[in-house]
Amino acid sequence: MVPSSTTRVQVSGGSPDAPKTIEEDAALQWDMFTRHHALDGEWWGTWSTYDYMGDLEDTTAAGVSLQLAEDSDAVVHTHRILSSSTQSDCETCFSSSQLTTLPTIATYTPKTLSRRHRCAAVGMVVGPSVLKSGAMSTELVLRHGDGRVRVTFQHAPVWARGVEPGSCPPQGLKMFRAVVSKEKLRPRMEDTEGTIQGPPSAVEEKTSPPAPGNPRFFRPVPPFKWHAKWAGTSWTWGPQTGDRGWSIQEIDEADSWHGRQGDAAGVWSLRLPGGVLIQCPRVIVSGASGICRLAWMPEDDGEVGTLEDGNRAKLLRIEASVLALEPIISEDDDNMMVGFYPPTLGSLRTDILEKVGELEGASLEERAKAAEGYVWSVDDVSEEVAASEGTVDMMPQEAFRPQKKSAPIDEELKKKITADPRNALDF
């Protein structure tokens, strides 16, 4: 997946160049995995589970450990669950005696990492893979400084309306769950009698504000902050093109999906506090790739007069296309399907962007009003009304109501309407 043709990009001088062999690709992937994710410590966060309606179902405080072996040839993946909310004397610490360590999830090596993982700069996708329950899982990860955001989309088999479930192979995969975790890298504490720092909290960010280069999870991010001029770099991967690096000079409106809830009716979307947006297909069907997306604004513009003055807002994006339910046709009978191929990753893209300015032209509010066919302001109130009533406070409410105006008609349309009034119906 490459940046859209209308987004101004150029091949970066630091392009990773597509690896020529499987060994080169494995080495590149291992380097990114151990540089951005398999770090010394534990990624602690609150795993928040959302259902299809976007309602919060459950939360769990847990730590993800990706421990690199001393010889750097293996990474052990484990989870630790906080089974009690009992706090120690520290407001952001918990008693480690309340932890439950799960069995080892997996052990990765340079040769086995690519079975389920694919890295692209600071982004990573895990999957798509089929769970024991029959559901499909696709996980997206973005890392910034000492923080990460992970989202896991889960799609379950479904059948068309009127078709008995199980009477035939699944006809689609419907999104039914999303798990989001905002994580911070914490020191690993082996002593079970000591204390650990749990997930990031609003109290912690208030008492110890993160330094520039690290994310702030607990802050308001109004929708208009997403709409700005962004520039930076992009890392793309495809089965045929391999890894490529791009320099993004400007993102056009069509490619600015981070500022929209979804581009089509079939998109499931959720915007979360702290500058996080997630999107995925409501239903994935055979023959069409489904796009899973995660956008994150980890930092805002630095406030004037503070240590952060001059620091520009950051925007990270990752999107992965997923192919599933591709039929396996019998070698003996072209009309007989014998199963499905495992789901596959079709493409991957990670963007690392920084705010370089404000959008020019009309504001979003002005464009929305113009799209509805009218534009108004207090200036539309007649001077005669203002003069007759004396003061603004005494002016009738009707004077401040929106004055509807027709959108401008160009000369060509005027001629068409004059020639045949029925053309006005198209206006």
TrEMBL record:
<feature type="region of interest" description="Disordered">
    <location>
        <begin position="188"/>
        <end position="213"/>
    </location>
</feature>
<feature type="compositionally biased region" description="Basic and acidic residues">
    <location>
        <begin position="407"/>
        <end position="427"/>
    </location>
</feature>
<protein>
    <recommendedName>
        <fullName>DUF3598 domain-containing protein</fullName>
    </recommendedName>
</protein>
<dbReference type="InterPro" id="IPR012674">
    <property type="entry name" value="Calycin"/>
</dbReference>
<feature type="domain" description="DUF3598">
    <location>
        <begin position="29"/>
        <end position="151"/>
    </location>
</feature>
<feature type="region of interest" description="Disordered">
    <location>
        <begin position="389"/>
        <end position="427"/>
    </location>
</feature>
<dbReference type="InterPro" id="IPR022017">
    <property type="entry name" value="BFA1-like_DUF3598"/>
</dbReference>
<feature type="region of interest" description="Disordered">
    <location>
        <begin position="1"/>
        <end position="20"/>
    </location>
</feature>
<feature type="compositionally biased region" description="Polar residues">
    <location>
        <begin position="1"/>
        <end position="13"/>
    </location>
</feature>
<dbReference type="Pfam" id="PF12204">
    <property type="entry name" value="DUF3598_N"/>
</dbReference>
